[in-house]
Please model this.
Amino acid sequence: MHKPIRKAIFPVAGLGTRFLPATKAMPKEMLTVVDRPVIQHVVDEAREAGIEHLIFVTGRNKHVIEDHFDVQFELERTLTERGKRHELEMLAHDQPGAGATSFTRQQLPLGLGHAVWCARDIVGDEPFALVLPDMLHHGNRGCLAKMIEAYNEVGGNHVAVFEVPDSQTNQYGIVGRGKDTGKGAFEITEMVEKPPRGTAPSNLAISGRYILQPEIFDLLAKQGKGAGGEIQLTDSMLKLAEAQPFYGVVFDGKIYDTGSKIGFLTANVAYALARDDIAPGFRVELEKLLKR
Ligand code: UTP
Model:
């Protein structure tokens, strides 16, 4: 029996420079894909996977994320007075329970590895999920749920991967594919960050969902700056992989990088087209636009 995955870290302290000026005063995680903020979409994925405690590593200008997951007393009273039952039910459904969220500040955006390390005391000595909110995973079944299922069978560390064209492997962290566990995962033989063209061990790219053992924190504590002058999670994962097994879980849905403008716009179109209440009318408008 492997220790259960109860907690998930959401690093949301990045500056979102690719989305300026939208992100000057507003966190990119609060930009909406259809009618839900990006961060709500990934929290939905974590809750579907059975995660009990949501840990947000925030920074300056990010307090609105904390407000979003809090009860909005005045709003709820007004909705009650106006008889807006549907809206009230939706808010209640999305509301994490009391004590089920934690917020800590990264203080300085020193890199993803540093952001994860900032959550060490809240996570404690147990394996945890790490969810990069920018990367929306859109499929019939949540990516994290599938990963936790695979983890429960074999333990260890897991990363979700997706297939990218050979011409793009130099833009991602790429894993080597070893033996299949027969339980929805495969053994990872190597991990290479942005391999030069023609040297990638496969076309399976790390997509932004992880299950990590707590030993990663000691490695992150000692981790020096890496690429881009930032403390890189990948550098510590490579060290952890010398001592512990890593597995890959292939995500076969669509992945949108909402931290980039094209990814964000495409996600909006894809999520709208997947919604029964919006798709018919939206499709008509899209077709008119494309005909111009
Ligand atoms: P990104 O590099 O995609 O995010 O980091 P960014 O720095 O906000 O975006 P750009 O490149 O300037 O537009 C991946 C994830 O790691 C978090 C980000 O919030 C994002 O979820 N992150 C990154 C931190 O929490 N802290 C950091 O120091 C760096």
Q: What stands out?
A: The chain has a mean pLDDT of 95. DSSP finds eleven helices and 13 strands in the chain. The pocket of uridine 5'-triphosphate is lined by residues 11-19, 57, 106, 109-112, 114-115, 132-134, 259 (CB under 6 Å).
